[in-house]
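From the shared-data thread, chain only:
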Amino acid sequence: MAEGARSRGAAEDAGPLARLVQRLALERLDRDLFLGDPGHGDGRLFGGMVAGQSLVAAGRTVDAGIVHSLHGYFLRPGSHDAPIRFVVDRIRDGRTFTTRRVVAHQGGEAVFSLEASFARPEEGIAHEDAMPDAPDPETLPDWEDARARILGDPAARRGEGPVEVRLCDPEHFSGEPKPPRQAVWLRPRGTLPDDPLVHAAVLVYASDRTLINTAARPHGLPWGRRVAASLDHAVWLHRPPRFDGWVLYASHSPAAHAARGLVFGAMYRRRDGVRIASVAQEGLIRVPRS
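Structure, as tokens:
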């Protein structure tokens, strides 16, 4: 995939997945310095966007190896009205593992930091949990339809995003408490380029969806009744990244305290049940003051 940022106008004319792929095509300003376009939007920048772009910045400085883990901190809210500068620090280049640190700056301030590790393939031990049972995604409601229904406002439905999300167990519009676990199906709205780094970045982008919902469920805090933000995010990719079909994303929240909820997630390919990734996130969840 060619490097170099496209014009904002050209990106906005494309479909949602093509726009995301174009946002991930960072402009290389120097050996370890990249520039990214956050794209148009309202409110705070989606954390998955800056996380995916940071991973691409790290990966473009790695000569050999595939990303297998990353750990990020959301330091400040990002915005849609200024480009993001990604500074890469080459921590280590080893025979098996390569490590990169990335800090994303916007408006002169750090908004996100990332550490990512890349590994050369090798033979070794292998095991995994079985994929949980889940309804067929084609029978389930869309994330945006459910959100608009819970908010009680059809106009609150946002446009289609780059990743389709289907809810296995939607929240009730009344805010009835539910156990702190859920499962959703994820699928890109189109075909991604045949670039493992792009597949990994889009998986990371998608992995920031739905986790705060999981931690808020036992407290009866659906959309519109909470103020929330991701604090940190970790992803472990167990297989070479491919995101070209339905993926089941199961999550549960074992603990919450002091307005912070911890959530663990697991991603499974629908076609063969293989676990492709594990996720951990802590999110800030506050009840708005009346």
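Residues 1-10 have pLDDT under 50 and may be disordered.
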